[in-house]
Each structure stands twice: as C-alpha cells, then as structure tokens.
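Students often ask why we bother encoding 3D structure as a string. The short answer is that it lets us treat folding as translation between two languages. Here is a chain of 349 residues written in the first language.
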Amino acid sequence: MTDRYHRQILLPQIGQAGQARLSAARVLLVGCGALGTVIAEQLVRAGVGTLRIVDRDVVELTNLQRQVLFDESDAKEETPKAVAAARRLGGINSSVKIEPLVVDLHAGNAEELAGLEAGGVRVDLILDGTDSAETRYLLNDVSVKHGVPWVYGACVGMEGRMMAIRPPGMACLRCIFPEPPGPGELATCDTAGVFSPVAAVVASLQVAAAIKLLTGADHAAGHDLLSLDLWNNRIRTTSTIDAKRADCVACGQRRFQFLEQRGGSASTSLCGRNAIQVRPAGRVVMDLDVVASKLGSAGVVERTPHLVRCHINGSEDLRLTVFSDGRLIVQGTSDSDRARSIYARYIGT
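And here it is in the second language, the structure alphabet:
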C-alpha cells in the first residue's frame, strides 16, 4: 500500500492513518456519467475500500465527450455504464472492491442500496453523480434520516455547484433549496449542453470533500455551497453555516417526502436521448431469456448478459432495451404516454 499511495500518504492532512481509513471506507456513487466517472476514477486511484456504483443507463457515443471511463467500444456495444466503469476501474486498482449495479435508484430501493436496511452493510458516504433534481432530494432524505453524509454536485452548460452535507449538524439540501425546481425551470444537458471541464472540476471538488470526510477531517469539508462559472473564471462560495432551518421539512420536521413516495410505476425522460425510461411498480426480477423469446416476433433481438435489445419491425427509430429489474428504455420517443403503452404492449406487466 505504501508504494502505491506514497505521494498521498506524504500529505500531512492524510498520512498513514488517513490512508487506512480510506481503505476501510464504503462509498455509494449514484450516477456514472459526466460527474460520476471522474468521481469513481479519482476515488479508486485514491484507494477507497469499496465503491458501489449505481447507474441505470448504457454508454452512448454522445457520452464520450465528457464521461472519462468509457470508450468507443463501450458505446458500440451499448454496455451498461456501471459495468463498463467497473471493468475499467478494476484495471486501475485491483485492490478496490467495485460493486456495479445496473439499477434505477428510487424510493423503494434507495435505503437498501445504501446498506441501511436490516442486514445491510452501511455505507460511510453517498456521492451524487446524477442529473436528476428529484433523485438528489431523495438522497437528501436518505442522508438526513440515517445520518449518512453526502456530497451534492451538479453541472450544466458552463456552470456547476458542489456542497458537502453532514447531518445532523449542518444545513441539508432542503434547508437551502426547500423545493425542487418545477418542470422546465432549469436548463438541462438537452437544452444547454455540458462543458466537459466543468464536470471535471465539480467532480474533483466532490472527491476532495469525500476524502476529507472519509479520513475524519470533517471540519475541512467546509460549510459552503460552491458555485462556479468556468467560462468566465468565476467561483463563488456561499456560507451555509447559519442556513440550517428549524422548519426544514427534512432535517427540522423529519418528514421524508421523497423517500416515502414508494408508489406505482414511473416514467422518466433521459437527457439527450430522445428516450423514455419506464419503471414498473414494486420490485421486479425479470427473466431476460423469456423476454428475448417474447420479443422475437416483434423485431430483431439482441441478448447480452445484462439486457435485451429489440429493434421493432417496421420502425426506423423505435428500439427497446429491457433490464432484469423490469425497466424498459424506449428509444425513439419523448412521449411518456406512448412509452408506457409500449411497455404494456411488449412487456405486459
């Protein structure tokens, strides 16, 4: 360990004791895109003990501009991001335990994925690599409810933000942003694009905060919301030291509205994809061999270890991707109602 991490151990802020704490740490990374790939690589190179990567999507050519763990072969094969990342990371540091999970994190499984249900092994930290405001509020609920720190990060266009959140002592996400933005209120990667260096900077700030927290230097993680405009070379810090609110729905009233939304099926537009993901209600384990056989009459089917793809007959654009957790990605439409109808027609649950 000393040889590999020698330059890191030389840092007095880390040292042998800090490195030992890193090697024992368990981290949950939600999302393995522009932020998540940089986060994952830096944590693995730093020697974190266990990294659980949760991502629902597959690699596409448009990802390669900013998602640093993937290459053209991953895009050509449409490899699940968590799987492609784990394959690359295993070659970077074989001593780190990588747990790739090709699932959609939601209210029904978030606590389980963080090891917070009975019999689970609790993670020490949650890192936000998502592009979904609703998922971030869900992570905040999990964090506050169980007292697990998390590091928020976001980027779009030329701008980004980062904040380390440590309940119960400091303000949570809902103290600062009480409600998530409404539909259409914020720019997305579809409408504003993503400047790759912004993602790299925000993710590096998240990793810096993560290493501080995991090595026990909680105070060094700060009480600031960092905002940056990289094109105009502007970085702003907003202190959150007095932002904790007694009337905060999450950390004040301890009402976990996003975590309690364990209802029915859901459909989600996928950024930059002209695609809709449909997720069934409850927990589903789907036999992909049965799915492949069923879809054989509907189009050209490809079966991989992780999914089934089907290019629907008579349609130039419509492609279905089915995962073992029951999710269906309908490529070729941005209409949620149509996607749900396709799910019912071809999957039938």
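Translate back mentally: The first strand starts at residue 26 and ends at 30. Keep this in mind for the problem set.
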